[in-house]
Amino acid sequence: MHGDPEVIEFLNEQLTAELTAINQYFLHAKMQENFGWLKLAKYTRAESFDEMRHAEVLTDRILFLEGLPNYQRLFHVRVGQTVTEMFRADRQIEVEAIDRLRRGVELMRAKSDITSAKLFESILKDEEHHIDYLDTQLELIEKLGEPLYLAQQIEQPSEA
């Protein structure tokens, strides 16, 4: 099925964002793991995998519309050095994604591509959930301070 070029470009732009997010979240997860924040690292790693699933469905849709998924392009990966910086960097990716997804839904509906619009709406729901999580974590850090917040993210090793 031949898709609208503007819709395919929007799908590719969101694919670029998802590929960027995969890298950013995965790097943050590995850094968190290295710092000993194992509970946080598990959650962040799972977020990276969620973004991978988004990239997969976007790729499938682009191919279905006879477009070419662009895996060669990435946006800027923002790397935080502290947990607060990591959350703020991850939040920025989500803010940008939510704006892009909303604009995409509008365009796709105007072009009568309801399936692509529904795909974007599904991803939008996930991103809104993630930004809510990040906002909650940033509020907890503000209330508790980073040291106390991080004390809750440490997981003791199990016995050998």
UniProtKB/TrEMBL annotation:
Recorded superkingdom: Bacteria
One Gene Ontology MF term: ferric iron binding
Residues reported in the UniProt entry to bind Fe cation 2: E51, E94, E127, H130
EC number from the UniProt entry: 1.16.3.1
Residues holding Fe cation 1: E18, E51, H54, E127
Broad class of enzyme this protein falls into: oxidoreductase
Binding-site positions, heme b: M52
Record keywords: Heme, Iron, Iron storage, Metal-binding
A cellular-component GO term for this protein: cytosol
Residues annotated for Fe cation 3 binding in this entry: D50
Alphabetical list of InterPro entries matching this protein: Bacterioferritin, Ferritin-like, Ferritin-like_diiron, Ferritin-like_SF, Ferritin_DPS_dom
Reaction it catalyzes: 4 Fe(2+) + O2 + 4 H(+) = 4 Fe(3+) + 2 H2O; Fe(2+)(in) = Fe(2+)(out)
Cofactor dependence: heme b
Domain Ferritin-like diiron per the UniProt entry, residue ranges: 1-145
Gene Ontology biological process terms, A to Z: intracellular iron ion homeostasis; iron ion transport
Keyword Metal-binding listed: yes
Subunit (UniProt): Homooligomer of 24 subunits, arranged as 12 dimers, that are packed together to form an approximately spherical molecule with a central cavity, in which large amounts of iron can be deposited.
Matches recorded under PANTHER family: BACTERIOFERRITIN
Chain's role: Iron-storage protein, whose ferroxidase center binds Fe(2+), oxidizes it using dioxygen to Fe(3+), and participates in the subsequent Fe(3+) oxide mineral core formation within the central cavity of the BFR protein shell.
Family: Belongs to the bacterioferritin family.
Protein's UniProt name: Bacterioferritin
Native source organism of the sequence: Streptomyces harbinensis
